[in-house]
Amino acid sequence: MTSHSTPRRHRALLAAGAGLAVTAALSLSGTGTASAGTADAASTTVQPAGHSFAATLNGTASFKAGSVSASCEVSASQPSAGSGNNKVPDAPGNANASGPVSSGINAPTYSDCTSSLPVDVSVTTSGTWTVSMQNGSPITASLTIPTGGFVLKSSGLANCTITAAPDGPVTFPATFTNGSGGTPSRITVADAEVAVKVTGGFGCPTAATTSVFNAVYDVTDVTDPAARITVGS
Known about the structure:
Layout: E1 3-10, E2 44-47, E3 53-57, E4 61-65, E5 68-77, E6 95-96, E7 101-106, E8 109-114, E9 119-126, E10 128-134, E11 139-145, E12 150-156, E13 160-164, E14 170-177, E15 185-200, E16 210-221, E17 230-232
Antiparallel strand pairs: 1-9, 2-6, 2-17, 3-5, 3-16, 4-5, 4-16, 5-8, 7-10, 9-12, 10-11, 11-14, 12-13, 13-15, 14-15, 15-16
């Protein structure tokens, strides 16, 4: 299991930050039980087979838990040496005749986050997350956070611990857009709800059980920067 810790001067609102999650990226609905694939789903092919990819935040990732909200300016999931994550499956695994195609991804990191009260914050992400792509109109995606795969701790004015996917893996929906021209392929997360558990004292939104997450990630081909990661039939 790989972990990433990013100390930051944030605000207590970061309870909402437990949402990524992703991540990045991009899980992504209700308590996180939605799935991109169904028994009669269309065929899906992700190209190029075997290529590694990165997901990099485009703009701002925002989180909201209860009355508290936070935003982060930097987030990414990158391939790493010795890991099979962040890779389109080799053929023929990059194609599914009646459902989605999935890949493990390294836990995304988050930094440059702000909220409402001055506190010291550390964000730790861990484990292998999963992204699944399903061809269609629109192309859909789902992101899965492993149990406890995102933990935010604040200290100072408010001492809080916010854990995403506290009781088991959480999956939430997104959409995927193939790139064209100078625009890269993208995953968009819009008002996705992710299950969280908040513990702590005064100033911590302990009644919150979900965090609403919004973000856009550029998905780029690391193996061949001139190529694009695309989803089709």
